[in-house]
Amino acid sequence: MATYQKDRFDSVPDDLLRTGAHRGPAKKGRGWIAFAWAVLATVVLVAAGLFGLSVVSGRLHLGLPFFAAPTASASPTPSASPTAEAKLNPTIPITILNGTTTTGLANGAGNNLVAQGWGGASSSIGTRASASTTDVKKTVVYYSDPANEGAARALVLSLKVGTISLSSAFTASPLTIVLGTDYVLPAG
Predict the structure, then answer these.
(1) On the CB side of 32, how many CA atoms lie within 13 Å of its CA?
(2) Of 133, 115, 134, 85, which is closest to residue 186 (Cα–Cα)?
(3) DSSP alpha helix (H) spans, the chain
(4) Concatenated DSSP letters for 39-89?
């Protein structure tokens, strides 16, 4: 071990009572304060990120008054007064989404529509799937092209429930049915 020559800094007077602040014992609970600040910073950053996403995409709506409301394309509303004449179009592909917790409702509705002459509702042409793990209240038929409004109106008549809405939310299919709890599968 090396020895160093003593100098004036090695001799400290005994009456000197002051010790360095770094030498004192740590106060209890100081770790929790740092943890609380880290949690607060994380919550603020996540909230700011969600707000930024809702503003940029318009697809995220948390239901809070200071967050951006969804745009018309993200949350379509049913049209109040349809103008096209109801007309069955058996060749148009139809997507049927079960918006309820009832198992097999989309398949049952699709089979019922095929029996009524809607060939596009067959599982080989259209699509059938579950859309939600919670119940959607009202059945809505969405159409992405104004030329399909008549077919959408005819679908509502075939289902015996629902409204129609022009929407760009379901662009992959010309007609999309979101079945709600108001839809009852016909007995048969």
Answers:
(1) 3
(2) 115
(3) 30-57, 105-115, 149-159
(4) HHHHHHHHHHHHHHHHHHHS----S-TTSPPPPTTTS----SS--SPP---
Per-residue pLDDT reduced to its tens digit, 78-103 = 444 546 677 777 788 888 888 888 88
- What is the rounded average pLDDT of the residues 110-133? 82
Tokens representing residue 68 in the block? 């951006």
Cα(1)–Cα(21) distance, integer angstroms:
29
Quickly name the fold that domain 94-179 has: Alpha-Beta Plaits (3.30.70)
Instruction: Kindly list the domain boundaries of the chain, sorted by start residue.
Output: 29-71, 94-179
pLDDT digits (tens, 9 = 90+) for 20-59: 555 566 677 777 888 899 999 999 999 998 888 777 776 6
